[in-house]
Structures are given as C-alpha cells and as structure tokens.
Amino acid sequence: MKIKIAITGILWMAFIMATAQESNNDKIVKRDGIIISGKVLEIGDDEIKYTEEGLRADIIIGIDKSKVEKIIFADGNEFKIDNAMGVYEDLSTQHKNALKFNLFSPITGGYAFTYERSLKPARSIEAEIGIIAKSENNETEMPEAHGLFLKAGYKMMRSPDFYMRGMKYAHILKGSYVKPEIAFTSFSYNKINYIDDDPKSGSETKVALLVNVGKQIVYSNAFVIDFFVGAGYAMGDMDLELNYYAFLVTSETSSFVLTGGLRVGFLFGK
User: Fold this and answer.
1) Of 106, 115, 208, 267, which sees the most CB atoms within 10 A?
2) Residue 12 neighbours by CB distance under 10 Å
3) What is the architecture of the domain spanning 23-84?
4) Can you tell me the mean pLDDT for 178-193?
5) How far apart are CA 188 and CA 245, in angstroms?
6) Kind and range of the H or E element at 126?
C-alpha cells in the first residue's frame, strides 16, 4: 500500500513539474500549424532565434520569420508577425496547383483546359487537353472538325538579375517563364464548298515541338492569369485551310508554326 502511495506521489510531482516547465516556455506558432515550445531570444528582421525545449540551453536555433504566424510568450502576451506587405511570404502555405481555361480556344472551335503543378520554386509541369468540336456554317469558314489535342510542357520561371537579403518569391507559380512543350493534335474534318459543290474530308494527326514565353500573374493565392506566345516546328506537310487547334500554320511549304493564348483559372491544393 505504501509503495502504491509513493509511486502515485512521484508521478503527481513529475506531472506538476512538467506542467510548470511548459507554462514557463514561449510558443512559436508556425504558419503550417506546428507549435515550437522553448525560449525566444531574439526577433530580427528576417529570423527569430530561440532555444528549444528538451535541448541544451546553449543551443540556439534560428527560424525564418516568414514561416512564423505569431509568438505566444510565457506570460500570455502574443506577438503577431506582420506579413501584410508580402515580404515574408511562406511558400509552404501557398497553393501549388492551378486549373486554367484558354479563353481564345472557343473562337477556333476548341475547348482547352490546363493543369499546372509546381515542383519547386521556379519549376512546374503543365498539361493541356483540348476538345475539338467545330461546326461549319458556310463555305468561307474552316471545315467542320471533331477530335482532340494535347500539350505537355516544363515551365521554368525567370530568376532575378541579382539577389538581396530577405528576398522571397511573391508566389511559387508567379512570374515570367520559358516553357519547352510538345503538342499533339488529331481530328477528322468535313467541308463542302457550296460554290462548286466540291466536298473535302479527311483526318489529320500532327506533332509539334514548341518553345513558349509568357507571364503568369497570381492574385490572393486564389486566381491566376497566364498569357503566352510561342513558336516551333511541326512534323509533316501543312494545309493552310485547316485549323490545327494546338498551333497555327504559317506556310504550306514550311513546318514552322506559332502558338499563343490567354488562360484564366484558380489555384488549389498544397
């Protein structure tokens, strides 16, 4: 009986001591929700220095100020980190996926949707699928066509000419970029010339290698605008009367092609 009482007393005292120690610690609340318990020693322009609970008191750790939401001191006072100007934007809180729609594609008879995924700062992959559903109204328009086109590219954001201390990406998907891309288009078409009653029908499958340059703008980590132009070469003979949807033919005697567009969409996911 005495042993049980002694053990209970020891456990109770250990609990009281642990609670008291915890109450004497400051808490660093990160933007991803993780809480660090310890003693805050210094709050600098770019970094917060502290000692962490469970480590020796002479081990001083630094954390990027952009990753901290607030500090709760042992006396209960709170210190919030002001990131209102975006100087200390934390990439870990940003959406890294984008779903976009090409605003110009319906004009040509296609409907194109693009998915982009950030791999790391200044690098992302992008894939586009387009549904071709073009109806012919009269002999002056492009032929009626049905099919699809696909694009896949690797986007590389522009690096700054020089770096300054504390400089951060405003957003992981924002900025000017270069994007090598492969484009594939396959569709069947049917055209009737009502003047000389000369029907024309067939199918086309083409592949092109393109290089795009553009700029992507992000608003409030939620909305995105992406505009771009590009050029490259397609494989096989081209027909100026046909719309290839994934790119624009410049000449029947050349494989040189152009591309471009304006995409709008929204961001989601981590």
Assistant:
1) 208
2) 10
3) Roll (2.30)
4) 88
5) 12
6) strand 123-134
